[in-house]
Amino acid sequence: MRLSVVVPCYNEQDCVPRLRAALLHVLTPLTDEFEVILVDDGSVDGTLDQLRALARADSRFRYLSLSRNFGKEAAMLAGLAHAAGDMVALLDADLQHPPELLGDMVALLDKGYDQVVARRTRTGDSRTRSAASRLYYRMMNRLVDVELTDGVGDFRLLSRRAVDSLLSLRERNRFSKGLFSWIGFDTAVVDYENVARTDGTTKWSLRSLVNYGIDGIVAFNHQPLRLAVYLGALCTAAAFGYALWLVVSALVHGTTAPGYVTLMCGIIGFGGMQLLLVGILGEYLGRIYHETKRRPHFLLKESSHAPEAPCADD
Ligand code: UDP
Ligand code: MG
């Protein structure tokens, strides 16, 4: 098998027919040896029925169905784990990742690269969203030890070596943008124009974006914990200075009763700071808790092939 294409699908019944046509259009001239692995991530619409029909009609289309919605990261992992190709492409079902790019990407991989990533321009994004994401990436790259690039998502082509490396990372909290970058290997970039989603709806809300952002920071480094050390040192130094000033002033002018404002500011300020830092500790603790349970990343409900395949990923 030369090329596997992995597509996570969550409630994408409107996209599947166009996706099939677009993939066939691109893949048929590229190679005879390809497979498309569609991963139904616990969809509640007609997606699974469509995937079943597709796999029945054309054996090059295979599907996996997860037992519930495990999230895109898990769906991609399931697809990667079942892909047999020497190279594996990851792309979205909504055609926001134009399959036409696959030709160029395959050519680059053949030149010896292990990862070919597609980078999108941000045309069409709202100005606040692109400004927020620029700011986020600038901050991330200062905090995190791996290099992350704005506009680079999960749309990419991986060599067998890169796929096996990714599969060998067993962590539960998967922030794949970071994982892709962490495994290293020679990486090439191709640019493409941003495409607006035409069918179905995006699964990202503002809240899930913010949570994703926090995941990215916490999954890849422990710098935020260091914040506690710096803040603690700063506050202690400030408190010493202030105490000294109070003592001297009491000695010179005698004690005066007022201090309500100072006290309140101190209590509220320090209370807030402590809660924040406990929260940061909790973020790490929660992750350790989940890692130690060692639950599988996903459970399979059915698949188009090998019914005797293990139903979990380990
Ligand atoms: N997706 C998934 N599981 C989820 C959410 C999304 O498999 O829980 C898939 C979805 O079907 C699509 C891809 O991930 O193929 C990207 O999702 P979406 O288009 O909503 O994200 P966006 O393009 O807005 O970043
Ligand atoms: Mg999309």
From TrEMBL:
Similarity field: Belongs to the glycosyltransferase 2 family. GtrB subfamily.
Keyword Transferase: yes
Domain of life: Bacteria
Locations listed in the record: Cell membrane
Membrane topology, as annotated: Multi-pass membrane protein
GO terms assigned for molecular function: glycosyltransferase activity
Domain Glycosyltransferase 2-like, residue spans: 4-166
Alphabetized PANTHER family for the sequence: GLYCOSYLTRANSFERASE CSBB-RELATED, UNDECAPRENYL-PHOSPHATE 4-DEOXY-4-FORMAMIDO-L-ARABINOSE TRANSFERASE-RELATED
Entry annotated with the keyword Membrane: yes
InterPro entries associated with the record: Glyco_trans_2-like, Glycosyltransferase_2, Nucleotide-diphossugar_trans
Bilayer-spanning residue ranges: 227-248, 260-285
UniProt-recorded name of the protein: Glycosyltransferase
Keywords recorded for this protein, A-Z: Cell membrane, Glycosyltransferase, Membrane, Transferase, Transmembrane, Transmembrane helix
GO CC, any one term: plasma membrane
